[in-house]
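Repro:
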Amino acid sequence: MADRIQTTPGGYDHNAVQTWVSRGGHVDQSSDVPEDAYRLFKHKDGHHVWLQPDGSIQITSVKVPADNKNGGKMKISVWGDAMVLVRQDCDIEVRGDTRLECDGNIEAHSTGDLKLGSEGNIKLMATKNIEIHAQQAIGLGAKAKLSIDTPKIEENTDMKKTTVSGPLNDVIDGERTLEMSAAKGTFHITSKGHMIQTVKGDYQLIVGGRSQEKVGGMIPKIPLPAMGGQTQAKSIELGAQGGTGKMEKVVIGNSVETVTVGNKSINVAAGNMVTAVGAGTYTVAAGVNATITGTKNVTIAGATVFLN
């Protein structure tokens, strides 16, 4: 029973406000005023439950004393199922840390947009798999860098386009294979500037069909520094770093070299030059003059030699 009852003048018949106050200062207050009807259950230290006139419910807990770190807690325990239905907006503000733990599954669904933001870091961790699916597009953007650390990457896509505005550096410790499975497809490598291929080991090129090479010989406005003083359209150096310096070409069919305008010179600085035809005919033809010069001897040998 309350220690004392305070009633506004006029009593209950005139929509009074009744207040029950205990010896310790706890308050149980009821208002029957039509424009301001409410119920208030208040502890002497301030935490309370307030049933407001507009249908709102306010539950407030406070720290007692104010510097008590363990005070002011609110605990809700439900042994069965629980459902929270908010028919309008819902705001949850936490001034400290937040921890959510679930023994089962968690499903979050939104008929509108779903935004997750943080002024610090965001970590998604799973002991099994993480899947991201979208009916339209998925965008990844970072102002500093995008890091991927995994033992294996698999991509399956109909089309792929990569745009890099700065340098691109791929470092591969193992092997790399580029394969085009479509028989009618074309593999393009295009460079509007220079292109350098450096192979410290062996280099093998296998072409199942035909091969065509075109060298325009146009000196660019900004030439490659290593080729700045080069005037020939194409230059090949063999054995430049102390290697064998041997070049061998095997042709199963015919071999034709045509110089439309200009001259062709084969210079052997030190060594021998041998042209051998195993089975067939070797012909040297010139529209004007043909000259074979040797500083010592010139030998032409055969079972029959015809000189016209």
